[in-house]
Amino acid sequence: MSSDLTLSEGLQRYREKVSILKKGYVQESYRIDQIGRCSLAQKRLHEIASPDIAAYRDQRLIQVNPRTGKTISAATVRLEMSLLSNLFDVARIEWGVTELNPVANVRKPKSPPGRDRRLLPREERKILRHCHQYPNPELYSIVVLALETAMRQGEILKLTWEHINFKSGVAHLPETKNGTKRDVPLSQKARDALVRLGPKTKGFVFSYTSNGLKSSWRYMLIRLEIEDLHFHDLRHEACSKLFELGTLDVMEVAAISGHKSLSMLKRYTHLRAARLVKKLEGNKHRGQQLIIKHLVPYPARVIPSETGVEIQLLDFDDVVGRGVCHETALQSAQDALLRQLMLSIRDKRPIPQPDQYLDEVDELDVIMLDPLVTNDSMLWSVV
């Protein structure tokens, strides 16, 4: 009899009839398997009461995830309880095997605060350098797209060449997590990241699977000794940077990122205090600030030779200082750097941020060269 349907049987039926139609089918299927392994799964649906659900909740909250070694998060338990609630609603309304939804009146674990993990500049540089040298060139392009466009991992992996318009600088997403299509503007960095892969007329841009990307991401974090950084944090970082530009309003950022809920977008946005201070300062000393912000130390590589010393500025293609000794080479490199920065400001040419170079360089050979400081001890500060 259908009224004798157990929770385990109900979960399987729900998977086949309901979950299969959802975009998040794979993730929900994992949750169904998890719930199906608990003792509660053997009880009949109509016998399960609210205390049973509360007991399941409390038991899950103290369990340890064998993969991470951490207790199951409140967010995970909330998702499982939502799944159970939906199951009981379907069983009550469509299957007629139970009269009540025992989950409805049970407290869900308190929703955890949104992650505020920002990608540190040093971490970003290390990640980009690693990806740039990685055997599969797709990894670098994926990371750049995530940082430049705020696209979700799934959206990036589903990109097709026929939906990328290099002339207009737009990537079209015919299907997104929210069920709506979206056009994403591509910055020059994003376009360059795609071009380096060799554009085609059709087909998927990336061959990575979701699991394959997760594996490469975990390997990279271990190798670079970066902790507690999720790939999704790159989307968070991109959204925050869009706000920090100061030229886009909330609706414009939402149009780029695909957030339907502005409250969700607020969770993603943690503006750095330094940027807020500059905004509060308004236009005071704007010209002076424009110049000063570029007069900062840049990484340089010291290359001794039989005839003297050469110092290469790593973020510039042709800024080099030479001398017969360290002191004269340093002065030459400092003058060349200052001249390059001033000419770029005058001609309104883009100036690279310090330490953005992608070449593999022995860190022991790298110093930070300040364009203004004349004290040798400060010129030789090691990265």
TrEMBL record:
| GO molecular-function term, one example from the UniProt record | DNA binding
PANTHER family xrefs = INTEGRASE_RECOMBINASE HI_1414-RELATED, PHAGE INTEGRASE-RELATED
Ranges where the Tyr recombinase domain occurs = 114-281
Say if the entry is tagged with keyword DNA repair.
Answer: no
Q: Which organism is it from?
A: Pseudomonas gessardii
Which keywords belong to this entry? DNA integration, DNA recombination, DNA-binding
Its domain of life?
Bacteria
Classification via Gene3D superfamilies = 1.10.150.130, Intergrase catalytic core
- InterPro entries, per the entry: DNA_brk_join_enz, Integrase-like_cat_sf, Integrase_catalytic, Integrase_recombinase_N, Tyrosine_recombinase_XerCD
Please give a single GO biological process term from the UniProt record: DNA recombination
Q: Which Pfam families match?
A: Phage_integrase
Q: What is this protein called?
A: Site-specific integrase
